[in-house]
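Service request form, structural biology core

Requester: graduate student, group of Dr. S.
Request type: structure prediction, single chain
Budget code: on file
Notes: please return the result as structure tokens.

Sequence provided:
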Amino acid sequence: MNKLFDYDRQIRQSNPVICGVDEAGRGPLCGPVCCAAVVLKPDFVCDEINDSKKLSEKKREKLYDIIKENAVAYSIVMVPPQEIDKVNILNASLNGMAEAVKSLGLTVDLALVDGNKVPPNMPCAVESVVKGDGTSMSIAAASILAKVSRDRYMLQLDKEYPQYRLAKHKGYPTKLHYELIEKYGIQDFYRKSFFKNRPELLWKKD
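Core staff response, request fulfilled:
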């Protein structure tokens, strides 16, 4: 038996409709944090689905389509840098996950959320699952939807701003990324609150 599927199967005995919830992009210096919620068909099992961080980009892209095809419902919410700067990255992530669940368009008995914190204002019962993306198939599926959606967004942004090499580092704080920011300054898609220790980088080239 697939252990991720079996975990969800046990939960469904008392909560027939469950959704997995996860986010991608809490650590980058720029771009949105992407939150996803997904309700999988109860009998859907796929041995390839796992924590998105343990999968190759090619495998995630393949599974993205498989998950969407086998979802009863799914929702993807992008929380922009301006909101992240306003409420901080943790609250932006939690608010985005709650919004993703609200946007599913169906009644959920229980939301399984990756991590150790529960989003506020959830429309249903909620349970946090530490390392949930390696425990629950529903959470793992949500992690893949979130990761692929955010990576695709960053690739599109890379076409508009090729000087930042976003396709390479996806916005994460690498040595190369910092060097490019020093050279080109920041744009509106950067999270200004992430530069508290490097305020000299908060300039915009004319």
